[in-house]
Design a protein that fits this description.
The structure holds 2 protein chains of 2 kinds. Chain A has no helices and 12 strands. By secondary structure, chain A is an all-beta fold. Chain A is globular. Chain B is mostly beta strands. Chain B is globular and about 45 Å long.
Chain lengths: ~110, ~120
């Protein structure tokens, strides 16, 4: 089974600055997807960005991008120009398994 | 907006009662999941299903049971609720992406309190 590890329980960023959330994973699969999900306080979990493992190019969605290092099994999320609405729990996921989450605080 | 629905959203119930948390999706997804999550904490996979008549236990041992008689419906049942069952239960579904799991779509959750 896949395992996903997030080693940053909490992170803080100043509004308009950039922050990077870390994630490592382990899988025996050769073809897989990796995901970052966002869970705002008391709200629904939603997808932020996905990466297909066979693609070397890092995925980008507006202010969100990933740094995918397949050999190192690393999958970090970079949030640029942070906004107050980015404050949430962020979960890294592989298949149906999730990391422990990182709580992101955005300071005005 | 994801088409996956959970009821009830909130439930307060006494010890020993039987409860069923409902989860339905209209996306035709084969794979469905139940997670247990305390507020602001990590998600624990408790059950999943690959399709009709398929149910599997997840990573976290749970006294709950599930069934999958129809593609769109994946209810979770606790025969005798206890205070230790107090938590939020999240239902999700996904489609296959080749041999892998695609994006998970989540319901809004069912917050259970057992007195």
């Amino acid at each position: 089974a896949q395992t996903v590890t997030q080693s940053q329980p909490e992170m803080s960023v100043q509004e308009a600055e950039t922050v990077t959330l870390s994630c490592t994973y382990d899988t025996s699969e050769s073809d897989y997807y990796l995901f970052w999900y966002k869970q705002p306080p008391s709200r629904q979990m939603i997808l932020v960005i996905r990466q297909e493992a066979y693609k070397q190019q890092n995925a980008t969605e507006n202010r969100f991008s990933v740094n995918f290092q397949k050999a190192a099994k690393s999958f970090s999320l970079k949030i640029s120009d942070s906004q107050l609405g980015d404050a949430a729990m962020y979960f890294c996921a592989s298949d149906m398994r999730f990391g422990a989450g990182t709580r992101l605080t955005v300071k005005p | 907006e994801a088409d996956i629905y959970q009821t009830p959203r909130y439930l307060v119930i006494g010890t020993g009662k039987k409860i069923t948390l409902e989860c339905s999706q209209t996306m035709g997804h084969d794979k469905m999941y139940w997670y247990q999550q305390d507020p602001g904490m990590e998600l624990h996979l408790i059950h999943y299903s690959y399709g009709v008549n398929s149910t599997e236990k997840g990573d976290l041992s749970s006294e709950s049971t599930v069934s999958r008689i129809r593609t769109e419906h994946f209810p979770l049942t606790l025969e005798s609720a206890r205070p230790s069952h107090t938590s939020q239960y999240l239902c999700a579904s996904s489609e296959w992406q080749g041999a892998s799991t695609g994006e998970l779509f989540f319901g809004e959750g069912s917050r259970l309190t057992v007195l």
